[in-house]
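Session log. Operator J.P. requested a structure for one protein chain; no other inputs attached. Running the standard single-chain path with C-alpha cell output.
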Amino acid sequence: MSENENDYFEFADKGDLLPPSPHPIIEELRAQIRRKGKVVTGEQAAAIIRDGDVVTTGGFIGAGVPEDMLIHIEERFKKEGHPLNLTLIYAAGQGDGKTKGLNHMGHEGLVGRVIGSHVGLAPILQKLIREEKILAYNMPQGCISTHFRNLAAGKPGLISYVGLGTYIDPRVDGGKLNQKTKKEGEDLVKLIEIEGREMLFYKLPPINVAIIRGTTADMNGNITMEKEALTLEVLAQAMAAKNNNGFVIAQVERIADLHTLNPKHVKIPGVLVDCVVVARPENHWMTFLESYNPGYTGEVRVPMSSIAAMELGQRKVIARRAAFELRPNQIVNLGIGMPEGVARVANEEGVLDLLTLTAEPGVFGGMPNGGLNFGTGTNVDALIDQPYQFDFYDGGGLDIAFLGSAEMDKDGNVNVSKFGSRFVGPGGFINISQNAKRLVFLGTFTAGGLEIALEEGKLQIKQEGREQKFLKQVEQITFSGKYAAQRRQPVLYITERCVFSLTRDGMELIEIAPGVDLEKDILAKMGFKPVMKKPPNLMDPRIFMSGAMGLKRDMLEIPFEDRLVYDAKDNTFYVNFENFYVKSSEQIRKIQNHVEKMLKPLGKKVYTIVNYDNFNIHPELVEEYAEMVKHAMQFYERVTRYTTSTFLRMKLGDELAKREVPPHLYESKDEAHKRLKEKE
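Structure written below.
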C-alpha cells in the first residue's frame, strides 16, 4: 500500500468521507414495515421530522403539492411545539396566495431558514421574512431543481452562470432576502472563475426529509404518478434524501397490492420511499383550482375550440403585439400572468399547432394553463421532470421566451422579485431570461387603475395608472439588461402603448400605438429618457381592432430578416430565398443594403450559399438583380447557389456570366454544400 493510500484511509477513518448516520427513527420503522408495509398515518409521518431537520417539499404553485402532509406538520407543531427550527428547501413556489401550500409552514419557531425560488404565493411565510424572524434565501428555480440531482450524486454544489448580474450574484445580495440573513446567514452563493469565465457556485445543505407526492403506491412504496399533472423533481428529491441517510415521505391518493403496478409507470422506486401516507381527498387535488382534469394528464384531448377568446382590452393588446414575434417551429416559454395571453391569442389565430409551447416544470406542447393552474398544460405532447427541463432551458433550447415585467429602468434591467417590503422571488425567471435566444417582456406601461379605450384601430388613455413602471433604477435586478446587452441577446419590452428594444446604449423606443401622444402619454410618464435614434414606428393597427388579425398568414411568410443568417463558427452566410418573389426595385435595394449591413462590419470575406428553390422574379428586374449580386460578391470568399428550376439556373446563370460572376448554380442543396469550399 502506498503512502498516499495510507493517508486516504487515515482520513476516511475520521468519518469525513462517510455519509451521515441514519435518521434515528428509520430502524424503528423498518421493523414496522416488515410487519405492516410502508403505509402509515399522516400523524406518524409528521412525527418523523426532528428539530433542526432540513426538509424539502415538492410542488409547483398548486400542482403536486403534498398538502395533506403539510397540514399534518402544522397540526403537530400547534399541538406539541415541534418540530422546531427547520430548514425548508423547495424549487418552485407552492401556495395559493392565502393559506395553502407552504403557508402551513409560516409559524414562528417551526421554520428557521427558507431556501427557495419564490415566496409570493406564501404570504404567511413571507411575513416571517419581512419581520426578520427567519433566515431567507432566493435562488433561481432551475438551479435548485437541478441541484437536487447533485445532492443525490454526492456532489459539493452546482456551478452555473445563471444569476450573474442579478441580486443572486454575491456582489449584490447573494440571494439574501433580509437583514437577519445578511448578518447571520452563511453564503450559499459564491463567485468563482473557471477557464477565465465568471461563474456562480451554489451550495445547498444535505436533505434530511423529503416530502413528495404521487398517485398510487403499493405496499413496498413504489409510486406511480398517472393522475399528476406534473412529475417535477420528486425522484431527485427522494434520491437526495435517501443518499444522505435521510427519510422520504410520500403522499398518495390510493394503495395498490404488491406486484400490480406496471414497472414502466413507477416513477419512484420503493427502495427510495420510507413511508406512504394516503391523503384525505380534499387535500390531494390535482391543483389548488381543480380536483382532477383529464386534459392535463393526457387521459383525454380537449377540443381547443372550447377555450374562449380573450376580451379585447389592454392585456389582449399586449399579447397580440407579442404574438407578432412568434415564428413557425419555435420552442417557446410563457411566463405567469400577462404572457399567458400569448397562448390564447395563438390559439385564437390558429397558429398554436405551428409552435411548441413549454412551461418550466416540464411541459412540452399543447397549451399552457394559467392562474393557479399555471405550470400545467392542456393536450401536452410530452411531460418530463423539471430538472431536465431546466437543463434544456439553461443550455439555450428556447427560441423565444415571453415573461412578465413589473419595473424596468434605463439600462433595461427588470425587477419582478421585490417591491418595498413585499418579497416575491424570481421563480424560473432568471434561468429563462438569461438563456432564451430571444426575450420579450410584457406588461402595462403604468400600474394601478390604468384604463384604455380602443376605437378604429387607435388607443386612447382614459385613465392613467397611479404608478410608474419605467424607472431611473429598479429596486432589485432580477434581469440584468447590461449583462444581456454584452451578450447581444435580442430583447423587447412590450406595453399597450409602445415597444422598446434593448441596445448597448439602453432602452430604445421603437414603436408607438396609433392615437397615443409621445410626449404626454409616454415620455412624461417615464423616470428616464429613452434612446430615440429615429421617430418610432406605428404599431400594427390590427392589434387594436376586433376580429382575427390574420397572424397565421403572416407567420407562414418568412420575414425578410430571417432569410439572411451568418454562422460565425463556419464563417458561412446563408441566404434563404425559397418561395421569395422579387416584385420591385425597392426589394432589390433592401437585399443589397441588408447584405452590406451584415457582412461589411465583419472585415473578412465569407462563404455563401443561396437557396433559390421556388424563387420568382419579375422579368424586367432580372438585370437589376444580377447587378446587385455582382455588388455583393465583394463580401464573398466563394458562393454556391441551388434550385430545382432548370429555367432559373439558365436565366440567372446567363445574367451572372455576362457580368463575369461565376454562377455556381446547382440542382440540389447537398451538391451546393459539397461544392462550397472546393477550390476552383
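Operator note: The chain has three domains: 21-282, 305-544, 560-676.
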